[in-house]
């Protein structure tokens, strides 16, 4: 079940094509957790060069996808509504398996700490129920300077 579609996501976060990676949000508990989905398709531009003949999703883009899901969670939290979240740090990132075209990434994010202008989340990306990446992400939250 989708609780947020692509347009609702773009209304909340500033990312746009070609770097808006969240297709939809499956479930969200503002201030607590989110599950979101990214469909990995062969027509994504990065597959042309990474790696020709053996396409895999770059680890940095898996982290970016997790960060986008986390920013949705953070910006849906009551204390951060109407603000913008910026990735501040990535800790303990681990990659367990490759992500290929045709995979469906399920992104699971849990808020672990919140302060006045920051948040820390634990993240996991899964394909077919198996973890492909985990990381702790820290966000800095600021007032939005322009309308999205």
Describe the protein's architecture and organization.
This protein is an alpha+beta fold and 148 residues long. The chain has two helices and six strands. Strands 1-2-4-5-6-3 form a six-stranded antiparallel β-sheet, covered by helices on one side. It is globular. It starts with 5 loop residues before the first helix and ends in a 5-residue tail after the last strand. It is an enzyme of class 4 (lyase). GO terms for molecular function: (3R)-hydroxyacyl-[acyl-carrier-protein] dehydratase activity. Its EC number is 4.2.1.59.
The residue-averaged pLDDT reads 94
> Which sequence of strands runs across the widest sheet?
1-2-4-5-6-3
Beta-strand portion reads 35-45%
SSE ordering: HEEHEEEE
Low-confidence residue ranges: none
Main location: cytoplasm
Family: Belongs to the thioester dehydratase family. FabZ subfamily.
Organism: Ligilactobacillus ubinensis
Catalytic activity: a (3R)-hydroxyacyl-[ACP] = a (2E)-enoyl-[ACP] + H2O
Give descriptors for this structure:
globular, 3-hydroxyacyl-[acyl-carrier-protein] dehydratase FabZ, single chain, 148 residues, 17% helix, 6-stranded antiparallel sheet, alpha+beta
Topology:
Blueprint: H1 6-12, E1 24-29, E2 33-39, H2 59-76, E3 83-95, E4 104-114, E5 118-127, E6 130-143
